[in-house]
Amino acid sequence: MPKAIDYYDRGDGITRLNGQMVSFRDFRAESDREELEIILSQLYLLLEKYPSALENETILRKSRNLIEYAKKRNVSLNNCYSYFNKETRNIELPGQVKTKTYRLRILPSNWNNRYSCITISQYESMASGGILSKSELRLKLNAKGLDYINMTYMDDSTYHVYNSDALTYLKPNILAKHL
Hints:
Strand order of the largest sheet: 3-2-1-9-8-7-6-5-4
Radius of gyration: 17 Å
Shape: globular
Helix content: 25-40%
Number of strands: 9
C-alpha cells in the first residue's frame, strides 16, 4: 500500500505525513517546485507548437473529438487526451531507459464548471513499460487567465495532493512566462 501524504488546506501551512503533522514549508518544497515547473513547461511547449490551443474554438473542437472517442471506445474521458509528448533518456543503470510521457486534455468551461480545465499528466516508466510514477496538474483557464486547481504525485510508496494554495506557495519560476 502506498503511504499517504496529503496537503489539506486549513490556512495554516500544515501537512499530514503518515498521520503526523509537519510544516509544508519544510517538506519537499524544492523538489516539488521542480516537478511543478517540469509539468508546466509542457503547457508552454504545447503553446509554442499549437499557439491556438487555448482558444475557445480549438478547445471546443478538441473536446468534442475526445468525447466522441471516449463514447465510441467505451472509455472514461479521464483516460483520453488531446495532446501528447514523449521524452526518453538513459539513466545511470547500463542499458536502462527512462521515458516520460506527457498528455494534455483541455475541456471547455461549459463542461463541468465556469472555467476551462487543463489537465497535464506526466507518466514516468521504464523501457519494460512499468509505470514508475504519475504526476497530474490541473489548471483552470478563465477570463482572468490561468490559475491552479491542484496537483497530485504518486509512485509506489507515496501519494501527494497539493491544492491551489500549496502550489501558489511553491512559486514556480516558469509562471513568469505570459500566455
